[in-house]
Design brief:
Blueprint lengths: L2 H4 L7 H34 L43 H17 L3 H14 L4 H13 L3 H14 L5 H17 L3 H13 L2
Helix pairs in contact: 3-4, 4-5, 5-6, 5-7, 6-7, 7-8
Length: 198
């Protein structure tokens, strides 16, 4: 055989094609078997972990370790860190300070300053019936009867039903204001209401 005959292409016949396809099929099956073997070995290795390993112990809330074999340990709920404290007076204390200042200003005859102090206190505590009553008294001293009726009525609306003394005092202020405005019938009605609360 010459060199040139060795290098000539050789064509496969039908039998050779079938043999090649059968070899590929066998190769695929071998790969599948090999892959299944690797998966089986991996699963066997994972299942070989020791079942005697205990889970991590959880400390109880008081810091004591849980009893061995006990399952009553609980994990404490998350508690956010405390907010930093801000050094400022509580609103109630601020209201008390402003009320005392208003009393001092009223005694000194500075009714406008007393009004400002009480209005500032009302911005802090707008539902305080006593503040509305005190502002009504200052407005009465300022000879503003039109405002007194509104302020005393507001105080009555916010006052507790059990606070009969405050509500009676408000009705007396309303009666004085109505009389100053020339409304004698309204003044008599307010006096009657005040009397029923005594």
């Amino acid at each position: 055989m010459t060199c040139s005959s060795r290098l000539q292409p050789r064509f496969l016949d039908v039998k050779d094609v079938g043999a090649v396809m059968q070899a590929e099929s066998v190769g695929r099956k071998m790969v599948q078997v090999l892959f299944a073997g690797v998966v089986a070995v991996t699963l066997a290795a994972c299942s070989g972990l020791s079942r005697t390993d205990r889970p991590a112990e959880v400390e109880e809330r008081d810091g004591a370790r849980p009893r061995p074999g006990g399952s009553s340990a609980q994990i404490a709920a998350y508690t956010p860190p405390a907010q930093p404290r801000i050094a400022r007076p509580a609103p109630k204390r601020a209201v008390e300070v402003l009320m005392l200042r208003a009393e001092d200003q009223q005694r000194a005859g500075d009714l406008d300053a007393a009004t400002v102090s009480l209005e500032r206190a009302l911005r802090i505590s707008p539902d305080d019936a006593v503040l509305w009553h005190r502002l009504a008294k200052v407005r009465m001293a300022q000879r503003r009867p039109d405002l007194v009726t509104q302020l005393a009525a507001k105080s009555n609306a916010l006052a507790s039903p059990d606070d009969r003394e405050l509500r009676s005092s408000n009705w007396h202020l309303i009666a004085q204001a109505k009389r100053s405005l020339g409304d004698s019938a309204g003044a008599r009605d307010a006096e009657r209401r005040a009397a029923t609360l005594k």
